[in-house]
Specification:
Layout lengths: L9 H13 L7 H34 L3 H18 L6 H23 L8 H13 L1 H23 L9 H5 L2 H56 L3 E6 L4 E4 L3 H5 L3 H4 L12 H12 L3 E10 L5 E12 L5 E10 L1 H47 L5 H26 L8 E3 L1 H15 L4 E6 L6 E4 L1 H17 L5 E12 L1 H6 L6 E10 L6 H6 L17 H11 L3 E7 L3 E11 L21 E5 L3 H12 L4 E5 L2 H10 L5 E5 L8 H11 L4 E6 L17 E3 L4 H13 L24
Parallel strand pairs: 7-9, 13-14, 13-15, 15-16, 16-17
Antiparallel strand pairs: 1-2, 1-5, 3-4, 4-5, 6-8, 8-12, 9-10, 10-12, 11-12
Helix pairs in contact: 2-3, 2-4, 2-8, 3-4, 4-5, 4-6, 5-6, 12-13, 13-18, 14-15, 15-18, 20-21
C-alpha cells in the first residue's frame, strides 16, 4: 500500500505545493528531500535504540525494574516498528513520530539521571529537526514543549520531590556511561550533519534550477511580449468593474488610442450602445464565461463608431475565482461595409430582375401607344381636337417612358447605348427644363468647366439623374435658395480611389449638384441610395431618384457620394470616367424625308402583333417593301427563300428558342452584305467583341416612328455608327408574353 498524503503546517504545505509546479521534472522536490531526512533520522534512531535498549536492560538487572526503563523499551520497539514499515506510513505520521521520539528520549533520560544524562543533548535537536521536517512553527512548538517538560522535571528534582537514584561518581567514572554518551554525541551530531548536508545539496540544486527557470521565464516573457506587441488583433484584460488593466499596442490600429490612454478606463464608456456591454456580460454568464464573435460598435479616438468583433472569456485564478474578463478583439468595420455593399448589390440585383421585367413589358405597351397615337395625329387635321388628343396621349406615354427608363436602370449591370457624351452640353440642353421644374424662389447657377471633355455614358440616364437631383434639391429648399451645378476635370489618385470603393485611379469629370437647403442627417445619408427609401411625405416621392443616380454611376464605372449637414445644405458629387472619344452631336436628329433615299425590302421580325403591324405600317408609309415574321423560324425561312431582302429589322427576345442575335448571325451567313437593325426594351445577352454582330446598331423601345425611320435611313446609308455593348439582364420567366421585347 502506498504512503498516504503528507500533512504539513500551512506555510510548509504552501511552499512545497508551489515547488511541485515550479521545479523542473528531473529535480528533487523539497518534499522528497524532507522525506529522505526523516527516514535517515528514523534509521539512526533504530540503530541507536540497540545499545540504548541494552543499557536499559543492564540497568534493570543491577537497579531493578523502574517504570521509566519500561518506557524506554516501548520507545525502542516503536522506533523499530515505524522504521520497518515507514514506506506504508504517510510523511506526516513519520515526521511527527520522529520528532516525538527525539523529544521523549531526552526527557526520559533527564528524569532518570538528571543533568548528567547523555540524552539531555537531544532536547534542542528535537526542536531543530521539528523545524526542518515540519516548519518553524512546529519546531518552536516542539522545542518549547520539551524545554517546559524538562523544566517541570528539574523543578521536582530541585524541591526534592524526585531525586535520581544512582551513584553519580560511579556513573561518571563508568566506561559504559562514557560509551553511551559518545554514541549519543555521534548520533546527534551525525544526524545533524546528514540532515544539513542533504538540505545543502537540495538548496544548491534548487538555486541552479531556479536560475535555469528564471532564464526560461525571462525568455518566455520576452517571446510573449514580442507576440503581444506584434499581434494584428488586440489582446486585452479588464477587472470585474470593466477597467482596462492590459491592452496590446495594436489597439492603435483598431481604435486609434495609445495603450496608456486606455489603461484604467472602463470599457463601457466606449460602447456606442451602452446596453451592448450588458448583453456581453449576460452572454458570458449564459455560456459559462466563453463568448465567441460578439459584435458591437465602439467609439474610436475621433468619436467615430467602429465595428469590433471580440472573443471574450472570464479571467480566472488557478482555483477558479473570477478576476475579470480577457479576450481578443479586431476591427471589422471594413468587413461590415463589404457585407453591406454585398447586401445592397444583391438587393439591387433582385430589384433589377423584378423591375427589368416589368419595365420591359411596359415599354412594348408604350411603343404601341406612341406609334398609334402618332398615326392618329398624322391622320387628323391640324386644327382638329383629335390632333391635340393624340399629342396628349404621346406626352403621357413619354412620361411613362421616363419612368421605365428609371426602372431599367436597376436591371442593367452595364451601360446600354453608351456613347461619347459632352457633359456640359447635356446640362445646357436641360437648362430650360430644370428652370421650369424649380420654384421661382430657387436660383439655378451653372458653373461649367469641361466643354472640351467627354465621357462614355448613356446620355439619357445622365439627363434623368440630373433632373432627379434638381428636383430633390428643390424639395429641400421649401423657402427658396440656390442650386449650383458645377463641372470640372479631376484626377483620382490611388489613395482617393481606395477610399471610394469600386473606383479606379485616373482622369474623371466631376459633376457637383449643390443646394442650400435643409440638409440630411447622417442616417439619411447612409440610406439615401437605398431603393424606395424616402423622407418625403407619402405620395410625394417614390424613393427611386437617388437609387437611379447610384445605379447610373455604377454602370458608368464612376462613383457618386453625398456630403450634407443639417441646416446648411447638401452636395452630391458624380464622378464619370473621362474619354478621349469625340462626343456626338446632341441636337435632335433630322427626320427622314417623305420618301426614302433608297427604297428597300425589309424583313420585320416581331412577336407582338400590334408592334409588328405598327412597324410594317410605318415602313410601308415611307415607300419600303416589308415582309414580316412572328418568330425566328419564320424569319430564317424568309431569309433563305427571299434573296431580295436588303435589311433585317428584328426584335432580340423572341419565342421558339431562336432570338434576334441568332437570326442576325444566320442572315450574315446567308447574305454577307445584308443590313441589320436590332430593337429591344432590354437585351437578354450581349455579343462578344469577336462576334460578327457585335457592332450591329440598336434602337431601344419605346421608339417614335420618326426615330425608327431615321435609324433605318442611317443603316441603309451605312452611317449608323458603332453600337456600344448592350446591357446583360435576365428577364424573369414569370412575365407574360403578350408584349415581348
Amino acid at each position: 500500500m502506498a504512503a498516504g498524503p503528507a500533512v504539513f503546517p500551512r506555510d510548509v504545505a504552501e511552499s512545497i505545493e508551489a515547488e511541485r509546479f515550479t521545479m523542473q521534472p528531473e529535480s528533487e522536490t523539497r518534499f522528497e528531500v524532507l522525506s529522505r531526512i526523516c527516514d535517515a533520522v528514523l534509521i539512526a534512531l533504530a540503530l541507536l535504540a540497540v545499545p540504548a535498549l541494552g543499557a536499559s536492560l543492564a540497568r534493570i538487572e543491577t537497579m531493578g525494574w523502574q517504570p521509566v526503563m519500561g518506557l524506554q523499551v516501548l520507545i525502542a520497539l516503536a522506533i523499530w516498528a515505524v522504521t520497518l514499515f515507514r514506506r506504508r506510513l504517510s510523511y506526516g505520521v513519520r515526521s511527527w513520530f520522529t520528532v516525538g521520539v527525539l523529544a521523549s528520549v531526552p526527557l526520559s533520560g533527564v528524569a532518570s539521571f538528571g543533568l548528567v544524562s547523555s540524552a539531555g543533548a537531544w532536547i534542542p535537536f528535537a526542536g531543530v529537526l521539528g523545524a526542518i521536517l515540519l516548519g518553524h512553527r512546529a519546531g518552536a512548538l516542539v522545542l518549547l514543549s520539551t524545554v517546559l517538560a524538562a523544566g517541570v522535571i528539574g523543578t521536582s528534582v530541585i524541591v526534592g520531590h524526585r531525586l535520581p537514584d544512582f551513584d553519580l561518581v560511579a556513573y561518571i567514572t563508568s566506561g559504559p556511561a562514557w560509551t553511551a554518551q559518545g554514541i549519543a554525541w555521534l548520533m546527534v551530531g551525525g544526524t545533524c550533519v546528514v540532515a544539513i548536508g542533504v538540505l545543502n545539496s537540495y538548496f544548491v540544486a534548487s538555486v541552479a534550477a531556479a536560475k535555469q527557470q528564471a532564464e526560461a521565464l525571462e525568455q518566455s516573457q520576452r517571446e510573449y511580449r514580442e507576440i503581444f506587441e506584434n499581434m494584428v488583433d488586440t489582446v486585452y484584460r479588464a477587472d470585474l468593474d470593466g477597467k482596462i488593466l492590459t491592452i496590446s499596442p495594436s489597439v492603435v490600429n483598431m481604435l486609434g488610442f495609445q495603450p496608456e490612454q486606455l489603461i484604467g478606463k472602463k470599457l463601457a464608456q466606449f460602447y456606442v450602445v451602452p446596453e451592448k456591454r450588458e448583453e456581453l456580460l449576460a452572454e458570458l454568464q449564459s455560456t459559462h464565461g466563453d463568448v465567441r464573435n460578439f459584435e458591437a460598435q465602439l467609439l474610436d479616438h475621433n468619436g467615430e463608431p467602429q465595428w469590433i468583433s471580440t472573443n471574450t472569456r472570464y479571467w480566472k485564478t488557478v482555483d477558479g475565482s473570477v478576476l475579470g474578463v480577457e479576450g481578443v478583439a479586431r476591427n471589422i468595420t471594413s468587413h461590415k461595409a463589404a457585407e453591406e455593399a454585398l447586401r445592397r448589390s444583391q438587393k439591387m440585383e433582385a430589384l433589377g430582375h423584378l423591375t427589368g421585367g416589368i419595365a420591359h413589358d411596359f415599354n412594348n405597351l408604350l411603343a404601341v401607344i406612341i406609334g398609334y397615337a402618332e398615326l392618329l395625329e398624322d391622320a387628323a387635321d391640324s386644327s382638329a381636337p383629335e390632333r391635340e388628343n393624340a399629342k396628349e396621349i404621346i406626352k403621357a406615354a413619354e412620361q411613362g417612358t421616363a419612368l421605365t427608363r428609371r426602372l431599367l436602370a436597376f436591371s442593367r449591370p452595364e451601360m446600354s447605348a453608351a456613347e461619347p457624351t459632352a457633359v456640359d452640353a447635356v446640362i445646357l440642353k436641360l437648362d430650360g427644363m430644370m428652370r421650369r421644374a424649380l420654384d421661382a424662389t430657387v436660383t439655378l447657377r451653372l458653373d461649367l468647366a469641361t466643354q472640351d471633355a467627354s465621357t462614355l455614358i448613356d446620355a439619357h440616364q445622365l439627363e434623368t439623374s440630373l433632373l432627379n437631383l434638381a428636383i430633390n434639391a428643390r424639395d429641400a429648399m421649401p423657402n427658396g435658395g440656390e442650386l449650383t451645378i458645377a463641372t470640372a476635370n479631376t484626377t483620382i489618385d490611388a489613395v482617393a480611389a481606395n477610399s471610394s470603393k469600386g473606383l479606379e485611379p485616373g482622369e474623371y469629370l466631376s459633376v457637383v449638384v449643390r443646394d442650400t437647403g435643409t440638409g440630411m442627417t447622417d442616417e439619411t445619408v447612409r440610406n439615401a441610395f437605398e431603393p424606395f427609401f424616402t423622407t418625403k411625405p407619402l405620395g410625394t416621392g417614390n424613393g427611386l431618384g437617388l437609387s437611379m443616380v447610384h445605379s447610373f454611376a455604377t454602370q458608368s464605372r464612376g462613383h457618386v457620394s453625398i456630403a450634407s449637414k443639417l441646416g446648411e445644405g447638401t452636395s452630391v458629387t458624380l464622378l464619370l470616367p473621362r474619354s478621349d472619344e469625340v462626343p456626338r452631336s446632341l441636337e435632335t436628329p433630322i427626320l427622314a424625308s417623305e420618301s426614302p433615299s433608297r427604297p428597300a425590302r425589309i424583313l420585320v421580325v416581331e412577336d407582338a402583333p400590334a408592334l409588328r403591324a405598327l412597324a410594317i405600317a410605318t415602313l410601308q408609309g415611307r415607300g419600303h417593301e416589308v415582309v414580316a415574321a412572328a418568330n425566328g423560324r419564320e424569319a430564317l425561312d424568309l431569309l433563305r427563300n427571299d434573296a431580295e431582302i436588303n435589311l433585317l429589322f428584328t426584335d432580340i427576345v423572341l419565342p421558339g428558342g431562336i432570338d434576334g442575335f441568332e437570326i442576325a448571325r444566320e442572315a450574315l451567313r446567308i447574305k454577307s452584305d445584308i443590313k441589320i437593325l436590332l430593337t429591344s426594351g432590354y437585351a437578354l445577352e450581349s455579343p462578344t467583341e469577336d462576334d460578327p454582330i457585335a457592332k450591329v446598331p440598336i434602337v431601344y423601345k419605346p421608339y417614335h416612328r420618326a426615330q425608327l425611320l431615321t435609324k433605318i435611313e442611317e443603316v441603309l446609308a451605312g452611317s449608323s455608327g458603332v453600337r456600344k455593348p448592350i446591357a446583360v439582364t435576365r428577364r424573369p420567366a414569370s412575365y407574360g408574353r403578350d408584349f415581348n421585347s
